[in-house]
Specification:
Pantoate--beta-alanine Ligase, Chain: A,domain 2; 4 domains; eight-stranded parallel β-sheet; 15-stranded parallel β-sheet; about 725 residues; elongated; 3 helices; mainly beta
């Protein structure tokens, strides 16, 4: 029997309702959990997609920067995501910020890279051939950057030479990749631990503006930059009014560019260029100017003179030797004969040479001829000298002898000219290049009258006239001189005859006896090559001329460059035998300019033993054109111009190091438009190290970047955030 209790129905209903509510809540919670997990899954997918988009932006930036170092960034899509890339530049550094987005997700990646042209990541570059290592060990070529694209050396081989790179492992330690556009000899690429590629191709050489009218060219900058120590510019060229060499108190002549440089270095204390922002020392030698220069040691004086004539006419003219002439006196003879261009001087006494410069002999039509000769007296001179003619003609002339004339190079300048009919006859004006020149002026006229000098200070040394017959059929001659204390332009010299007639006037400047200052390690007479001295400038008699002309520390660029014609250029740099150094040499140029640039060759040939261990340390870029400048320029658009150098058959870098205890360290990039040779030539304790140092190349010359051949990227840092 069932018994129903009062109120039980209500309790059951409440219980059921509670269960329904609980189950409902549980169901709703389960649905919410599923929806949340789904949302999380979608958000994670967006974040991953945003991350991929940001990475895609970084990859895009690396690609674009490898082609164009000035690429600024871009906004683009990747799938259904997007990346926004911004690139900021500071020197060679590029900071890349890539923001990737998808739906509401956002990821940011940061990267810092160093952008270097492929040219610059090679420690040594030759546009034709590269030869490393001799029979002796002591040379190291190294690239310190840790990835395969960086190279120890590269040869463009633009001229198609049979051998692009030759390495002698016994004499050269090469650390880094070796690439070329031609044959690689001396090493086996299959076993080379770094990249070794004989088919790498060519890389662009940067175009350096050496001498254009652009204010940014190196020559223009040197002209516009002054040294605060004396207020004069940094352009060196003897005899050039625009150069410091012609400034008051300097007055260095056409043959004294090296002397001007030596004086500048001698006058400086401490680091050369330290107080000059972005200093460019630009040296331009005059055509065929020698590195050596001569200094006058004595004053030229007149020894003795003699005049003579052949009377009424004869096929010869005999002139007596001035009796007081002794060994090494220099004699000047002026020979005058009737007939002009129809008379020939058929014989000249032994040892006499026509004075160079201008036309010599000189004909005034068919009336008169003058020929001027010189001779350095020997220990046994004859009593007289005889000149022979093609026919019997009236002739006159004379010999003037001088003491303390330079016997090796007695003539500075010479020039002559015909003069119209009259009583006054004048020489041309000339410009002497040295102080203390003796000006020897010779005059002739088609008459028999006497002469009287008209120029103040002009001294007559002889007078002679052929005899017989009326005045118009005779000849008259005069020899004069005048000492010029200071080199430079001189006015005409004039003398007067007693009767009007056509004439000829000639002037020659004799060089005073000198001692030479040369560069040890260069053959005497080497032209257009700057000597970076290892010792004071000492003359051929061992007397010191400039006590501190050997530079110790240089900050900035030294350029030696002269445009010959078109793309042909000249100018070299020679390190005087570094075993003679009395102190270390250091030079650095880390502000965007090369350290050394030469139109021709950069040469370091050394041998021997220094008094103590020495270093020669160059930090920056060393660049040699090897005789051929960049072609092109001024093209519109610029892309139609080639920035590549032409490829010279000449030698650009020549290092033959055999000096014991001397270390040569070159940190940066060594490059040449021509051939490169580096080797130790003797077994010794000295070394040569060519090291590509990224710290040195943080600041590159503007011409090095960007280059159409592409850039190498060095990743410096990487970070991510959201």
């Amino acid at each position: 029997m069932l018994t129903r209790l009062r109120g039980q129905e209500g309790v059951a209903l409440v219980t059921v309702l509670v269960l329904v509510i609980v189950l409902t809540v549980m169901g709703v919670a389960m649905v919410d959990l599923v929806l949340t997990e789904t949302a999380i899954a979608y958000n994670q997918g967006d974040a991953v997609a945003a991350q991929f988009a940001a990475e895609g932006g970084i990859a895009r930036a690396l690609y674009e920067l490898s082609l164009n170092a000035a690429w600024p960034g871009i906004t683009d899509t990747l799938g259904d995501g997007q990346y926004q890339v911004t690139v900021t530049s500071s020197g060679t550094m590029r900071t890349i910020v890539s923001v990737g987005t998808r739906s509401g997700a956002r990821q940011i990646l940061n990267a810092a890279v160093k952008v270097l042209p492929r040219f610059a990541v090679n420690g040594l570059v030759g546009n034709t051939t590269v030869t490393l290592g001799g029979a002796q060990a002591g040379l190291t070529v190294e690239n310190v950057l840790p990835f395969e694209e960086t190279g120890a050396l590269h040869a463009n081989n633009r001229l198609g030479a049979a051998t692009a790179v030759t390495i002698n492992p016994a004499g050269a330690s090469v650390i880094g990749s070796v690439t070329a556009n031609g044959t690689i000899s001396g090493i086996t690429c299959a076993t080379w631990p770094w990249r070794c590629d004989a088919l790498f191709g060519t890389i662009g050489f940067p175009r350096l503006d050496m001498d254009s009218a652009d204010p940014a060219s190196y020559r223009s900058r040197a002209l516009a930059t002054t040294d605060p120590l004396d207020g004069l510019n940094l352009f060196f060229r003897g005899g050039d009014p625009a150069s410091r060499c012609s400034a008051p108190g300097w007055n260095f002549a056409l043959r004294e560019t090296q002397r001007c440089w030596d004086r500048y270095i001698n006058d400086r204390v401490g680091t050369i260029g330290a107080a000059i922002a972005n200093s460019v020392f630009y040296v331009q030698f005059n055509p065929s100017e020698r590195t050596q220069y001569a200094l006058s040691t004595s004053t030229i004086t007149h020894r003795q003179s003699r005049g003579g004539d052949n009377g009424n006419g004869d096929p010869t003219l005999i002139i007596t030797r001035p009796p007081l002439v002794v060994l090494n006196d220099v004699m000047v003879a002026a020979i005058t004969v009737r007939g002009g261009s129809i008379t020939t001087i058929t014989s000249v006494p032994a040892g006499w040479t026509l004075v160079p410069g201008g036309t010599n002999p000189i004909d005034n039509g068919t009336t008169l001829k003058m020929a001027v000769y010189y001779k350095v007296a020997t220990a046994a001179e004859p009593v007289s000298y005889t000149w022979g003619f093609s026919s019997s003609e009236k002739a006159s002339g004379g010999i003037q002898a001088y003491v303390n004339v330079d016997t090796a190079e007695p003539i500075d300048v010479a020039l002559g000219q015909t003069t119209p009919s009259g009583t006054d006859h004048s020489t041309p004006g000339v410009t002497t290049t040295l102080d203390g020149a003796m000006l020897v002026a010779s005059f002739a006229a088609a008459n028999g009258a006497t002469w009287t000098p008209q120029t103040p200070g002009l001294i007559e040394r002889y007078g002679a006239a052929s005899g017989g017959g009326p005045q118009p059929s005779r000849t008259t001659s005069e020899g004069t001189d005048q000492l010029q204390a200071t080199g430079g332009a001189i006015g005409v010299k004039t003398s007067r005859t007693g009767n009007a007639a056509v004439g000829i006037a000639h002037i020659v400047a004799l060089v005073p006896r000198r001692v030479t200052v040369d560069c040890v390690g260069l053959a005497g007479g080497t032209t257009e090559t700057l000597c970076l001295r290892s010792r004071p400038a000492t003359d051929s008699t061992a007397v010191i001329q400039y006590a501190t002309s050997d530079p110790r520390q240089v900050t900035g660029m030294i350029a030696v460059f002269r445009r010959v014609a078109g793309t042909a250029v000249a100018g070299g740099i020679n390190f005087e035998n570094v075993s003679l150094r009395t102190a270390n040499y250091t030079q650095q140029s880390l502000t965007g300019d090369p350290a050394l640039v030469a139109g021709g060759q950069i040469r370091l040939v050394s041998s021997g033993f220094p008094a103590a261990p020495r270093d020669v340390d160059l930090a920056g870029f060393v660049y040699a054109f090897a005789g051929l400048d960049n072609p092109g320029g001024g093209c519109v658009p610029p892309s139609t111009c080639s920035n590549d150098l032409q490829g010279s058959a000449g030698s650009g870098i020549d290092m033959q190091h055999g000096a014991n205890q001397v270390n040569v360290i070159l940190r940066g990039v060594i490059a040449s438009n021509g051939a490169v040779a580096a080797l130790d030539t003797a077994a010794n304790l000295g070394t040569v190290t060519i090291r590509y140092d990224s710290a040195v190349t943080d600041v590159l010359p503007a011409a090095f970047m960007p280059l159409a051949t592409g850039n190498a990227l060095l990743v410096v840092s990487w970070s991510a955030k959201d």
